[in-house]
Amino acid sequence: MKSISLNAHAKINLSLDVIRKRQDGYHDVRMIMQSIDLHDEVVVETRDTGIEVECDKPWVPGGKDNIAYKAANLMMERYKIESGVGIKIYKRIPVAAGLAGGSADAAAVIKGMNELFSLNLNEAELMNIGKQVGADVPFCIKGGTMLSEGIGEKLTKIPSFQGVDIVLVKPKVGVSTAWVYNNLKLDKISSRPDTDLLIKAISEKDIGCLAQNMGNVLETVTIEKYEVINDIKNELLRLGALGSMMSGSGPSVFGIFENGKKACLAYESLKDGEWECFMTQTI
Ligand code: ATP
């Protein structure tokens, strides 16, 4: 039996704009995606037959309902893999949190199976498979700092925003991405992020400019239902964050800090609250 272990990294959005609703029901977006150090561990191993998916957290579905299964199944069919595969997920990324935890696991399975079965697929081929599993999976395969357009699958590399200190807070509610998009009223959006300005700030390593101009149009929907998100944003600012924002469709909120010491002080003050709290960095 051969086995391989991979880190499946979460993402945050440094900006999120929704451009239009398409005829197929999806939305065209323009967003800056950023990988962070917070990760699940995904172990992929050969088995005699079938696909088995297990997670160490009981609230995450195992078997066919796990997105990792869908990724493995697609790889088995596409590349006519005759033996089986076992997948074990050690979950650390909060679930239904706007951090693309499921997509990160699926990306790790695609990369892991490529190595385990010596398929020798290049990154473009892996991303193409990923696209069929979910809109955020290609980004999770690539990682880093990217402008993401289309339904999330059109990726353009922007300069790295690595090593920035982040405090991440996940209130005790789960949010369905589909629910947020279904309740988004595009004609009611009054303020949109200036994505080009943010890309410039990232290129110039101007953390202050980035932090003060970040914007996520989905906040309107999620914050209307969960006021706690606004409370956390304000709390992060009070504790010294240069800027704070909801990630993806929420409910996770992150604060960007000037340095690790300031992030650590904020983390210490938030870590025992009614939420999950992490100190992490952009990678
Ligand atoms: P996104 O921002 O891409 O929508 P998210 O972080 O908001 O992702 P996930 O953590 O990926 O959401 O979970 C969304 C749903 O998918 C959950 O309700 C969960 O039950 C289901 N799910 C299936 N497989 C996984 C997995 N491997 N990890 C987490 N959730 C999973």
Q: What proportion of the residues is helical, as a percent range?
A: 25-40%
Q: Helix segment count?
A: 10
Number of domains: 2
The mean pLDDT is 96
Largest sheet geometry: 6 strands, mixed
What brief labels describe this structure?
about 30% strand, Ribosomal Protein S5, domain 2, four-stranded antiparallel beta sheet, six-stranded mixed beta sheet, Alpha-Beta Plaits, about 280 residues, 4-diphosphocytidyl-2-C-methyl-D-erythritol kinase, 10 strands, isoprene biosynthesis, single chain, 10 helices
Question: What can you tell me about this protein's structure?
Answer:
Keywords: ATP-binding, Isoprene biosynthesis, Kinase, Nucleotide-binding, Transferase. It is an enzyme of class 2 (transferase). The active site is at residues 11, 136. It catalyses: 4-CDP-2-C-methyl-D-erythritol + ATP = 4-CDP-2-C-methyl-D-erythritol 2-phosphate + ADP + H(+). With 283 residues, the protein is of the alpha+beta class. It has 2 domains: 3-157, Ribosomal Protein S5, domain 2; 165-281, GHMP kinase, C-terminal domain (Alpha-Beta Plaits). The chain is 34% helix and 30% strand. The chain has helices at residues 67-78, 101-116, 123-133, 137-142, 177-182, 195-203, 207-213, 219-225, 228-238, 260-270, and strands spanning 3-21, 27-47, 51-55, 84-90, 145-150, 154-157, 165-171, 243-246, 253-257, 275-281. Strands 1, 2, 3, 4, 5 and 6 form a 6-stranded mixed sheet that branches. A 4-stranded antiparallel sheet has the order 8-9-7-10, sandwiched between helices. α6 packs antiparallel against α7. The two termini are 32 Å apart. The model has no long low-confidence stretch (mean pLDDT 96). Bound molecules: adenosine-5'-triphosphate (ATP). Adenosine-5'-triphosphate is lined by residues 60-61, 66-68, 89, 95-103, 105, 136, 177, 248-249.
